[in-house]
Amino acid sequence: MITAEDRAAVDAVLASGWIAQGPAVAALEADFVRRYGGGGACALSSGSAALFLALKSLGAGEGATVAVPSYACSALLNAVYLAGATPKVVDVLPDSFCLDPAALARQAAEAAFAIAVHTYGAPADVAALQAPGRQLIEDCCQSLGGVGVQGQLGSQGEAAVFSFYATKIVTGGQGGLVWSKAADVAEAVRYYRQFDCRESYVPRFNLQMTDIQAALVNSQLARLEAIRSRRQAIARSYLAALPAGLSVQSGLADAGRMAYRFVVLAPDLATREALRRHMEQAGVGCAVPIERYELLHRYLKLDPADFPVAERLADTSLSLPIHPGLSDAQLAQAAAALSGFRP
Ligand SMILES: Cc1ncc(COP(=O)(O)O)c(C=O)c1O
């Protein structure tokens, strides 16, 4: 949702005569360092770039294995391959949809790196995923501002990555960021994000964010608590309307939750499809967040039998509209439609 303040922030950048990476990007990075109480931050062109450069800066290159959740977007695989490492797909938990620590021990014990996605805002159990000799990247692309029992999401691993894509919690149209408690990791990311001004040749890139994007992101970050409240209020309305026979992703009513999606779980594929049709007939557009064919083990042609939880989630989940731009009338319409469904 773009407000008049957001537009004014962009206008100020346009009027300043400096539209490429500049003071607004520096302000965004300083904001993250402040939010996390230290460390270093580096803003980038996308969440994909953030994943890629976090891996590269942590040393996940050729010969390294990176554990990734089966139920996740393919940006994870892209980043691992671009860094020159090898992905190892691991199944997820049925309640949080996040990387399963027991499956990680079973399916990728040897992985020196892991990417833990806080899926749709649900905190991954980072403490249980950590192990001696393993570096963890927390993927906060869907959980900016979220707080779990282990504190602010992103604060526990070796690096945290964020996306500011158009559909994310706050947006610059596109954009990304790496924060790390180790300032040298953020500095390594900074080294790779632009190719000018080098004394000797090392492949480096242009993965910068513009000040136009950063101004938009900064303006929205200033109302992150209002965004959280609105998303939580929508989630509470849906929870109150949920008919017997359907369940939801865990923790949606938790105080620190940044509810990126409101995902309903049906008992089976046929009921999920019936729910989707029912909502559509009521004028409420819903989405299957990850289709079965998009699961990472399917992309890599691995045996689906080894990833039963992800398979089931793909078949049974449906995401209801939760963006803060939803009006009270639209919310009432969607909640009424949900409560009228008979599984
Ligand atoms: C969990 C996760 N990781 C990474 C990304 C990649 O972010 P971007 O679209 O900004 O490249 C996304 C967004 O699509 C995402 O949802």
Question: What would the keywords be for this entry?
Answer:
343 residues; alpha/beta; Aspartate Aminotransferase, domain 2; Aspartate Aminotransferase, domain 1; 2 domains; 3-stranded antiparallel sheet; 13 helices; 12 strands; 40% helix; binds pyridoxal-5'-phosphate
Task: Describe the model.
This protein is an alpha/beta fold and 343 residues long. The protein folds into two domains: 4-221, Type I PLP-dependent aspartate aminotransferase-like (Major domain) (Aspartate Aminotransferase, domain 2, 3-Layer(aba) Sandwich), CATH 3.40.640.10; 224-339, Aspartate Aminotransferase, domain 1. It contains 13 helices and twelve strands. The strands form three sheets. The protein has a seven-stranded mixed β-sheet, with helices on both faces. The protein has a three-stranded antiparallel β-sheet with strand order 10-11-12. α2 runs parallel beside α8 (211-221). The longest helix is centred in the C-terminal third of the chain and has 18 residues, at 224-241. The two termini are 33 Å apart. The mean pLDDT is 97. Bound molecules: pyridoxal-5'-phosphate.
